[in-house]
Amino acid sequence: MFPPSNVWAYRQKLQGFSLAWRRPARPSMLRLLPTDPSFTARLSASPPRAKAASSHRRQNHRPQSNVPDQDEIYYVLTLQTDPSHHRTMCSLRERYFPPALLRVGAHISLFRALPDSGLPSLREDIAAAADHITPFQIHAVGPPIRMGRRGVGVPVLGLEPVVELVRGFQEKWGDVLSRQDRGTFRGHYTLMNKVDDSETVARCIHELRQDFGPNGCPGMVLGLSLWRYDDGWWRHEKDFAFSGAEKGGGV
Q1: According to the 3-state scheme, what is the secondary structure of the chain?
Q2: What pLDDT score was predicted for residue 31?
Q3: What is the pLDDT of residues 180-231, one digit of tens each?
Q4: Which of 57, 39, 112, 41 shows the shortest CA–CA distance to 231?
Q5: Whole-angstrom distance between the N-terminal and C-terminal Cα of the chain?
Q6: Dihedral sign, Cα of residue 93, residue 249, residue 235, residue 179
Q7: Cα 165 to Cα 205: distance, rounded to the nearest angstrom
């Protein structure tokens, strides 16, 4: 449980987060290729999808950017968490996300469409910033929140060290960022999305309220990870470990 002195602040954080997500949810733009071999194996065993549906979905998930060249390669920047925390959150996402769409492991994204044209300087900025941050603890906590009408998310507390980092990057990279990446950062895990059946969404929220208590899922953020967007997948490019962090974290 959180200390009594933090209860009011904790409730205020959740209230503000929930209100912010009452707007209609936009389709998620990116998918993650997890590092967990068992997760990847289960995805490989899934039945193939129709070609037309796959093509339509890739078009819907294509990153939107104000960069002139729309055929440019894009990159995604996420938090790198410890393996135990990552496995726990992936298992929850596997439980609730539509199986036909589950090509994404659990993740907390900072930026979703960084352009390849500016990659050298972007990588320098990311590496320099990571060197000035030490590993810190986070909590993915209940109660769950409704994301639009078709999704369910879980807030993440303890992200203050990267809130300022994101703001700094937004100021420096503003000319090359997409509209979404210029928006306010609200760290969360999406456990369900693109589900039209309201009863299924309600059942997910009910179960998470029962199982995902106030202590939530604690974890450590060990660094930042850069991924290359590749026709619906993320291909791992590079990890940027925080100062003093051990290598080999999750996503």
Answers
A1: CCCHHHHHHHHHHHHHHHHHCCCCCCCCCCCCCCCCHHHHHHHHCCCCCCHHHHHHHHHHCCCCCCCCCCCCCEEEEEEEECHHHHHHHHHHHHHHCCHHHCCCCCCCEEEEEEEHHHHHHHHHHHHHHHCCCCCEEEEECCCCEEECCCEEEEEEECCHHHHHHHHHHHHHHHHHCCCCCCCCCCCEEEEECCCCCHHHHHHHHHHHHHHCCCCCEEEEEEEEEEEEEECCEEEEEEEEECCCCCCCCCC
A2: 39
A3: 999 999 999 999 999 999 999 999 999 998 877 767 899 999 999 999 988 7
A4: 57
A5: 26
A6: positive
A7: 31
Tokens at 134, concatenated: 């030490």
Amino acid residing at 185: F
Residue reference for tokens 């309600």: 202
- The tokens for 33 are 């290729």
**Predicted structure pTM score:** 0.71
C-alpha distances in angstroms, 77 versus 30, 43, 166, 237?
Answer: 11, 23, 10, 10
**Does residue 74 surpass a pLDDT of 70?**
yes
